Amino acid sequence: MGTGIWRITLALAGILLNYEATANNNFDVHLDKFERVGPAGEYFSYNYTYDKIADMKYNMGGHVQQHVQLDDSYMVKALMARSELADGSEYEVMLDIEKPLCEWMRTIYKTYFYEELEKVSNFPHYDTCPLPVAEYTVTDYVFDAEPYSEMMSEGRWKTEMMLTKDGNVCSGIVMITTVKPKA
């Protein structure tokens, strides 16, 4: 997780946003909120691009500067929850994972991110931990949402990715989307 949460966040948020926004042509999706949380610039500086290249394909690129060394004293948390469209509906947690950074690297990152990202980035190997201060880039990462179309469902979706230390958020994102059947 070379850039801590932001490297993973760029990949996961892009995957989730693309998946939710385009996965099933029978739904309209609105991005209600995409918010960065945590102290600005203390742990990471970054920029990224995100371009639609076809109905179900997107191209992403990014640059992340990691300002501090990250080790197992940091935790990575990924949460995805869904609620009904009715106002006031409670979110039901669909996915809630929290692991120490090095364990995250050896398990989640290795299984779901590394193989695909190593082709388009200089992100570290999954056995790298602690993660030294570094600069990371990803170029021409193409995501195809078509394989995920069977999973789309109506509702409000909340996705959170966080890097924490001692229970405090160091860096992360919160994304809320509304998925409705096309009129």
Overview of this protein structure:
The protein is of the alpha+beta class and 183 residues long. The chain has a single domain, classed as Ganglioside M2 Activator Protein, Chain: A. It is built from 2 helices and 8 strands; from the N terminus they run αβββββαβββ. The strands form 2 sheets. The chain has a 5-stranded antiparallel beta sheet with strand order 1-8-7-4-5. A 3-stranded antiparallel beta sheet has the order 2-3-6, with helices on one face. The chain starts with a helix and ends with a strand.
What's this, in brief?
This protein has 183 residues and is an alpha+beta fold.
What attributes characterize this protein structure?
183 residues; alpha+beta; Ganglioside M2 Activator Protein, Chain: A; 2 helices; 48% strand; disordered N terminus
Overall average residue pLDDT: 81
Q: Largest sheet, if any?
A: 5 strands, antiparallel
Do you know the CATH architecture?
Distorted Sandwich
- Beta-strand segment tally: 8
Helix content percent band: 10-25%
Q: Rounded to an integer, what's the Rg over CA atoms?
A: 16 Å
Signal peptide: 1-23
Keywords: Signal
InterPro entries: DUF1091
Pfam family, one: DUF1091
